[in-house]
Amino acid sequence: MFRGTFTALVTPFRNGDVDLAALDRLIESQIAAGIAGVVAVGTTGESPTLTHDEKEKVIQRTIKVANRRCKVIAGTGTNSTRDAIEATKFAEKSGVDGALLVAPYYNKPSQEGLFRHFKAIADEASLPIMLYNIPGRCSVDILPETVVRLAESCRNIVAIKEASGSVERVGELRRLLRDEFAILSGDDSLSLPFMSVGAVGVVSVASNLFPTEVCALVRACESSDYKSAQRMQQKLLPLFKDLFIEPNPVPAKTALSWRGAMSGEVRLPLCEMSEANQARLRKTLEAFEKAK
C-alpha cells in the first residue's frame, strides 16, 4: 500500500492565505518526477497553524490535482483524539488513500493512552492509517510493542513513519511486525540505513525541492543497489542536513521561494531564516546543483 517516496508537502502561503495556485504547481512537479504519493497538511504543511477550513480545502485541492496519478495521504493527527477522529473521517469521505496520524504532542500520554488514542481513530474510519512516530517533536515515543498491539488490533493501521532516528528501532519493528506492514523513514538522511534493515520508503521533506533525486535514491535501495544509493546519499546529505538548520519547513519554503515556486511565507510562531543561515543554505544548494 505505502512504499516508495512520499513528499510531505509544504503549504504555500501568499499574503497570509493559502496559495492554491502554488500548491497546484508543487503537486504537478511531484507527479512529473514519479513520486509515489504526497502528504497534504502534515506537520511539514504547518498543520498546527492551519484552520479546519484551510486543512479541508488543501486536502480537497490535493485530491483534485493529483487525480489518482499518485497516492494522497492526509495529515489528520493532533493531540485531541476527538479532533483527530473528525479530521480522519472528513479525509476518508473526501477520497484520500490514507491518513497520517502523528503521536499526540504535549499531552505525553502513556503507552496505553497512545494505544487507545490510535485505536479510537482507527475504529471510526476504514481507510488505511500510517502512524507517525517523532519523539523529538512530540516528547512521546510510540514503542514497538505498542505498534504491534495496534497492528494486531486494527486492520487498517498498516504503516508507520518512523522518525526516532534509530536504525535499531527500524530493525526491531521489522522483526516484530507482519511483512506487509510498511515502515517508512521519517528522516531523509536516514532513508538508506533504514531501508537496509527493512523500511520500504520515505516520507520526505527534501523531495519538495528535489523529487527526482530522492526517488532515485529510494529506488536504488529498493533494488538493493546500495553502492549507487550510497553515492546519491553522499551528494544529498549536505542538503538533507541544511534543510533542518532552522525549524522545518522554513528552509524548504525559503529555497522554493528562491526558485520562484512560491512565497517563502510561514506562519508564526515560525519566522523567516536568519541571513547567516540563508547564506549557508544558498551555498549548499549551489554546490549540489554543480555536482549534479
Explained architecture:
- By secondary structure, this protein is α/β, with parallel strands linked by helices.
- The chain has one domain: Aldolase class I (TIM Barrel), CATH 3.20.20.
- The chain has 12 helices and 10 strands.
- The strands form 2 sheets. It has an 8-stranded parallel β-sheet. Strands 2-3 form a two-stranded antiparallel ribbon.
- Helix 1 runs parallel beside helix 2, helix 2 (52-66) packs parallel to helix 3 and helix 3 (81-94) runs parallel beside helix 4 (111-124).
- The chain is globular.
Strand order of the largest sheet: 9-8-7-6-5-4-1-10
- Could you list the spans in which at least 5 consecutive residues all have pLDDT below 50? none
- Radius of gyration over alpha carbons? 18 Å
Q: Approximately how much beta-strand content do the residues carry?
A: 5-15%
Look up the CATH topology.
Answer: TIM Barrel
Structural class: alpha/beta
Q: For the record, give the distance between the C-alpha atoms at the N and C termini, rounded to a whole number.
A: 32 Å
CATH class: Alpha Beta
| CATH architecture grouping | Alpha-Beta Barrel
For the report, how would you describe the main beta sheet? 8 strands, parallel
According to CATH, the homologous superfamily is: Aldolase class I
Instruction: Report the average pLDDT across residues.
Output: 97
Net shape: globular
* Integer count of domains: 1
How much helix is in the residues?
Answer: 40-55%
